[in-house]
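Section 4.2 – Deliverable D4.2 (structural model, holo form)

The reporting period included a commitment to supply a predicted holo structure for the target in complex with copper (II) ion. Inputs used:
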Amino acid sequence: MTVPTLALYCALLAASMARADDAPNYDPRSTAAAPCGVGTPRPGHTPPELRPSAAGVTLTVRQDGSRLCYVADGSADAPIIRVRLGADLSVTLQNEITDVAAIDAVSGPSKLTTPNEPVPPSSGFYRVVPGMRHRATGATNLHVHGFAVPPIPPQDDVLTVCTDPAAGPAGCGQRAFTYHYRVPANMTEGLYWYHPHVHGEIQAQMLMGLSGAIVVEGPQDDQRRAAGIDERVLIVRQTQDLDAGRNAAAAMTAAPPGHEKSGRPQPASAIDTAHELLCASSSGIDALSLNGTPIPVGDAPESALARLTIAPGATQLWRILNAATDAFLDLSIVEMAGKALPFSVVARDGSPLTDDAGAQLAPVATDQSQMVPPSGRLEILVPAPPAGTKAFLVTHAVDTGCAGDRLPERRLAVIEAAPAAATPRAPAPAQATSGPNLFSGLLSRRTDKQRVIALAEYPRPGTDDQIDFYILERKLGAVLKPYAMGDKPMITVNAGTTEEWVVENWTNELHAFHIHQVHFRLLEIDGEPLHQPPLLDVVNVPYATATGYHSKEGPVRPGRVRIKLAFPAALAGDIPFHCHLTDHEDNGMMAVLRVLAPGKRTSPASASVR
Ligand SMILES: [Cu+2]
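Output (structure tokens):
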């Protein structure tokens, strides 16, 4: 469920109508008259790439009405930043936001003006009370999603570092901030990305245009190039979020939590299942874009699609980023008659497929569709279709649950074998080697502690169309209340420890669980063990199912994933974990885990060793 952003929707409709079939008047240069450039690129557009020098790169956040953009080297087309494993990367973020009200108009209108009961009204670094209307500040910052760098300034701290707009509140005390990331040599190589992470404004700022890709290169790229395998970066963004907020009163039939005789909030150890499962009538279909051009819904001429060519007999590496605010992708390559064609998965979430020791697993051809949750990445080797034929990159319809958004099937691109090249490319994929990485050995480590993390939603007491979002550790004595950012960490762990978490989804829509700084191994989905647990930084958590009041399990069985994760000393600090459906994280489904550096250890008394 999400908030309506009608103004932005109208602007985008107008833009897509004006585009017609042919070349739009596209000019990404950022000028005084057009801070975010003019027009929409042609389908198949590739964003500019930057290999920052030692001096680093400057990303200036500029605004043009309901659009925000990252401007680098004068271009408002967010650059793909390339960096090498082991390198230093400096990024200066300069905030030139001029119209805070425009941000407010995107995220604010459907939100409540009264706080949810147990939450003190002054909580949070950004004075965000979960689920409550929060006036946009225009502050922005930068999160390098997936980077295994410390959550401490000048690296990836999204909780205390921010920059103030050119016009508006000045709560951050600075208009610019220079991040210095030391990309570990033993981080995994692949596709990462950057986006703003100011709590309460993440969804609005991303919908308005703020996100970009980062390619972290390593030995595998050298081998890929030696093998003549070209590469593409494909960025799916969401440009509007229609639905929700508007789901009519009729859909919200359940009573709020704490409506029991006691009148007190339910203890979280006994989630109020009877009132949790809700359905919503979401109506609209949200707009998506591919590398800046609209992705059509329904029938559309092929000229509206990106045309991606591959030399006959050759293979390309496609790095696909789902930068949508809440849309899931389920990607396939299909031939003209709709039959799935094989491709090979080489990496997910910036992590090549490896065994527990870090050794590369040979890419295996598959024709199964690949689910990519919001913020997830998929890297695949795509063979050229046979000469004279076409294929399509599609995202299949996704069943997001009866409270989730509508995601119909969409075609993203048409794939063709290019006219025969003078020198045919080597068809064989590079069999890359990779050594141990920061998260190698995770599966073989002893589990120090197990936890259950619950994701829940309830209608706000006294309303019929407002939802509160929760994330909490489900344990005896816990109370279901919104976690206020800036509160004491929900979970505190010692550096060097290893845990298993069962993440439960008690709601009728999908959520995407993400934790900053660390990658985890996904062990199980709904109780089914995975044969080859992938190393991920975000995972789709299946929605709950009604089992009936006579079931031994109770009336509701939550969707569940089991993950295993460790907290290296190098990443000690305060680490956010949250749902990556941005409306959810902005409104309560986000909390903080503290990793204590060695020497500041917490008592092991509560640890339960398996
Ligand atoms: Cu969510």
